[in-house]
Write a structure and sequence with these properties.
Layout: H1 2-50, H2 55-65, H3 68-83, H4 89-94, H5 97-102, H6 108-120, H7 126-173
Helix pairs in contact: 1-2, 1-7, 2-3, 6-7
């Protein structure tokens, strides 16, 4: 009987600790993904503004050169753009909101910034495109600072909360 209690207690502690670490890691993941997003935006800016590369080709290049954790987004945008013709680019950008939220742990503010790129890309001269990219890159910097603050506050909290919840459940059950 004591072995079953010990095994059950360990399972409870393991599962609540895992849940705490999972929820805590979402904050670190968001920060890392924002950094990767910034790198991809800089590459996209280089492709479009300085290289005068057509958008589908530029998106393909970003998919190949960018960090794999985030560059799949640019592949999906390109595929959506190619499948639905040369229509509205914003529509292709908005087609990937779900992966941004679920896979990359972006907040509504992060997603809105990403969509703002879809609104302005390809709709003006190269000089205006460069200004738009600089504005978006500055905003990503602010989002990274916010993500860092949230990570510092919440990551440790969730990890400790997972462990302490498991211990509290074990104490209550014993």
């Amino acid at each position: 009987m004591g072995f079953i209690k010990l095994l059950g207690s360990l399972l409870i502690l393991f599962s609540t600790t895992w849940m705490g670490f999972y929820h805590g890691s979402r904050y670190s993941s968001r920060l890392k993904n924002l950094v990767y997003m910034e790198q991809c935006f800089k590459m996209l800016e280089t492709e479009i503004v300085y290289g005068a590369t057509p958008l589908p080709e530029a998106l393909h290049n970003i998919h190949r050169k960018g960090n794999r954790k985030i560059s799949f987004i640019f592949r999906d945008i390109r595929e959506h753009l190619m499948e639905h013709g040369r229509g509205d680019i914003f529509y292709s950008f908005s087609s990937i909101i779900k992966p941004l939220k679920d896979d990359l742990h972006f907040t509504a503010e992060d997603i809105e910034l990403f969509l703002s790129l879809g609104r302005v890309i390809g709709s003006s001269s190269r000089r205006d495109q460069e200004k738009n990219f600089q504005l978006i890159l500055n905003q990503i910097g602010f989002l990274q600072e916010d993500a860092k603050d949230e990570r510092d506050k919440h990551e440790r909290l969730f990890k400790n909360l997972g462990i302490l919840t498991g211990l509290a459940i074990i104490i209550i059950l014993l």
